[in-house]
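Q: Structure tokens for this one, please.
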Amino acid sequence: MNQQVKSGNQTTMKDQSNKKQVFCTGKKLEFEIPSWNQVYILLLKIAEAIKKSKYEPDIIVGVSRGGWIPARIMVDLLENPKLANVATEYYLGVAESKQEPSITQSISISVKDKKVLVVDDVADTGESLTLVKAHLKEQGASEIRIATIYYKQWSVTIPQYFAKETCLWIIFPWEQKEAARKIIEKFEAEGITEEDAKEKLISSGLDKELLERFITEVAEEKQ
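A: Here is the predicted structure, written as tokens:
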């Protein structure tokens, strides 16, 4: 869950290159909860953009943890069997981060003289991606490009490839239980009831039955 949120409302404008940009105002925490199919469609768009750009990476690197599943899918879509991983640590909870990101697992295979495609779920602050890029350069990668499903306009790293720009907190299909637990805990710490937190998540698109199951399992794990 490598994200921060700067608002719940959004306005849009276009820059000189005619690219749509999203800006957020206010303090309300809002969510976007894409389905597996929606994520896959977004990854298809990224794969198409990579092919169109004629970039042919020697190795695809998934950034732990959010980039692992997208990276595996990208391996399939680009028909590139070389998959590696690198792990960073930055976010501690919902919109709560350490002071600086750190590499907790170095790149798993040699990237010396290789063209690399780094894949992550979202470019939020962009600081972890900056760190990963520097790490891969140190390991001798000849060229590094970055692909993320989502991009937030305040990111210090702008991916060469991304499918969607947003200012919302994204809850991906592979992290729904963890996200639900942390969001409910955060809301309760702010004086928001569990019922209100549940309603917020359900209205944002999280399946009600799944959410109830997650809450039950979390309660049992605490006993």
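A few notes: The first helix runs from residue 36 to 52. The beta strands are 9-14, 20-25, 31-32, 59-64, 83-93, 96-105, 115-123, 143-151, 161-165, 169-170.
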